[in-house]
Amino acid sequence: MDIRPGLIVKIVVNIDYIKEVSDVRSSTIFDIIEKKLIIAQTEPSILKSKINKTVIITYLTKENNDIVRYGFDADIVDLIKSYELSTDHKTEAVILLKKTNPVKNNLRFFFRVEPLSNSDIYMSIYRKPVNILDISIGGAKISHNREFRLQSGSIIDIRLSIDNALFDINAVIIRTWDPKEEKMIKSLEFVALEFINTSMHFKNALGKKILEIQGELRSRGIL
User: Are 165 and 222 in contact (CB under 8 A)?
Assistant: First the structure.
């Protein structure tokens, strides 16, 4: 794809699953050296604590007379306090290592949607079906009938079926809570999950489904 110095990019630095927002920042590519990208430091700044963390780099390009957004995963390698743009111009920069090839992306992927009964997206944990309350690329809120015990902070294996395509991924349990109705507590539990170590292929498939659900919700006047 058309990744080049001078290109303006949007960086998805973090998806805050609890607050249901994503942290997207703007930057510009200064230089490209094989799989390494040197970009302008963002505002607010990317901190040292983000080194070795994976972000998503997205950018716009022209395709078949349309402007489309592509994205790829990259690791934050280092921060540069004084990067020399020219002889008399130095600035802060961030070094990234490109991990995946670009695929079509959309920043709206990170919004949360409530699947409809005909959305053709299903989740199971330990091969047991659970109910998806809402979902985004970052994670999901679910309910289950307490056939198994889920503990905050633990990592579990889950399976997502999206239009009959199966994805086996990991998720960390952010929190669990009981229903307000006391009579339901023994038979129902709510859980917030954050997806981890997911591939761009998975993100792209789920992102397309999220956009499809958003379109259906809007057509029904729900969104």
Answer: no
